[in-house]
Automatic annotation (TrEMBL):
InterPro entries, sorted: Alkaline_phosphatase_core_sf, Sulfatase, Sulfatase_N
Keywords from the UniProt entry: Hydrolase, Signal
Similarity annotation: Belongs to the sulfatase family.
Taxonomy, superkingdom: Bacteria
Keyword presence, Hydrolase: yes
Protein name, as recorded: Arylsulfatase
Domain Sulfatase N-terminal: 33-345
PANTHER family referenced in this protein's UniProt entry, alphabetically: ARYLSULFATASE FAMILY MEMBER, ENDO-4-O-SULFATASE
GO molecular function, one term: arylsulfatase activity
Length: 446
């Protein structure tokens, strides 16, 4: 396990450890496995049927969950850019300085000093590709950003072009390996991003590859994708607004794309040599109301709440991963050291994330004891029961039901003082990273 900030090992101290070279994960194939990391845009855990949604149709992701591992307690930051830097770098936002999303007027991009899993896998001999949404700098100014961060091949939504925000969906603006494509209203961006990756698998099926697919879906605007405009509304009731219905169709389209990737692996006989991780970058958009068995849930994007930070996390590797549900904590900062361990890659630097590959394979290992989160000026630490914020507010979050999990109930009893003190010590050390680290000046929170 390679990481800087380890979970709180006692009530009195927080160990900050130097990186050390991990051995290949127990249970992993000794040969170099392929790795695919898929991250949906603005998808909280409630967006998938396998997490309890009663209105969204996600058969491929449900199959992935049934055949692999579904994590009940996986967390991201509440907004786009901080999670995107965190998942690729294995570093907390208050260490990199990316604690808020980059805006159209920000003259900032992901600096070369921040290493990513693209670098690690490229240097280990992997073919590397990325497609979808970057949003870590302007593409018309810096079209080769993915190349600079370890990806050999890319097809990315431009985000802004010629000073104006471009479309990610219909009439998309896409940079593919430095070439600009401007589509028509009959062209649908997600079809292009996914086709690029499917072609990449065709081309590189004989060598180990890493694919990172930060999807454009299911972010607003909520417009029906092609071929789903007339989708039967068998699960949609009259009390749902048009945005939620369109969002549901987009979720199904996203699921269909994941199914195509799984089918492509099967076509080439690669299912048993490929690990897929599927997750989301933050909670669902606040305008979307999802239905769970015991409650309706408004999306929490942008808020330091359970709805804003709890995301789906599925791991699929037929024949290697024993199917099941894991209740251990997982933060997306753990993705880099985890997939590096699975691939037998020894990291040459310190990272904040933990190698949690043992949670994939059901083997022994050190579990994450707390999730640490920073966003703009806010901080929290969360264990399996409580969440403590920088202002001293303690939330009691039992997870026996969705209604309890998302209730945001404050723990006011003096019975919880020891928990407040225990978590407070962890949070204090975590918050000190920003003051001590010069890299935190890269990107100031708004």
């Amino acid at each position: 396990m390679t990481h800087i900030l380890r979970a709180h090992l006692s009530a009195l101290c927080l160990a900050v450890l130097l990186a050390w070279a991990p051995d290949p994960a127990a249970g992993a194939d000794p040969a170099q496995p392929n790795v695919i990391v898929i991250m949906a845009d603005d998808l909280g855990a409630e967006g998938l049927a396998c997490y309890g949604s009663t209105i969204y149709t996600t058969p491929n992701l449900d199959r992935m969950a049934a055949q692999g591992v579904r994590f009940n307690n996986a967390y991201a930051t509440p907004l786009c850019t901080p999670t995107r830097v965190m998942i690729m770098s294995g570093l907390y936002p208050n260490r990199t300085g990316f604690k808020a999303s980059i805006g159209k007027d920000d003259e900032v991009r992901l600096p070369a000093s921040i290493r990513t899993f693209g670098h690690d896998f490229h240097n280990a001999g992997y073919a590397t590709a990325i497609a979808g949404k970057w949003q870590l700098g302007q593409f018309d100014e810096y079209p080769d950003q993915p190349i600079q961060h370890g990806f050999d091949d890319y097809s990315m939504w431009t985000w802004f072009y010629d000073g104006k925000k471009s479309s990610r969906y219909y009439s998309p603006h896409i940079y593919s390996n430095s070439k600009l494509f401007i589509g028509t209203d009959k062209d649908y961006g997600p079809d292009y991003y996914s086709k690029h990756l499917l072609d990449f698998i065709d081309t590189n099926r004989g060598k180990p590859f890493l694919i990172y697919y930060p999807m454009a879906l299911v972010h607003s605007p909520f417009k029906h994708p092609p071929s789903l405009e007339k989708l039967a509304r068998t699960k949609y009731t009259d009390d749902l607004d048009k945005s939620t219905v369109a969002f549901g169709h987009m979720v199904t389209y996203m699921d269909d794309i994941v199914g195509k990737i799984m089918a492509k692996l099967k076509e080439h006989g690669l299912e048993k040599s490929t690990l897929i991780l599927f997750t989301g970058d933050n909670g669902t958009h606040a305008s979307i109301t999802s239905k769970l068995p015991d409650m309706d849930l408004n999306g929490g994007k942008g808020s330091m709440t359970e709805a804003g930070t709890r995301v789906p996390l599925l791991a699929w590797w037929p024949g290697k991963i024993k199917p099941g549900v894991r209740d251990e904590l997982f933060c997306l900062v753990d993705v880099l050291p985890t997939i590096a361990s699975v691939a037998g890659i020894r990291l040459d630097r310190e990272v904040d994330g933990m190698d949690l590959s043992h949670n994939l394979f059901g083997t022994a290992g050190e579990d994450r004891q707390q999730v640490l989160m920073s966003f703009k000026k806010g901080y929290f630490v969360r264990d399996r029961r409580f969440r403590l914020h920088e202002n001293g507010t303690l939330y009691d979050i039992p997870v026996s039901s969705d209604k309890e999990r998302y209730s945001e109930a404050k723990a006011g009893s003096e019975d919880f003082n020891s928990d407040r003190e225990r978590l407070g010590a962890v949070l204090k050390d975590f918050m000190a990273i920003e003051q001590a680290n010069t890299n935190s000046k890269i990107r100031k929170a708004k």
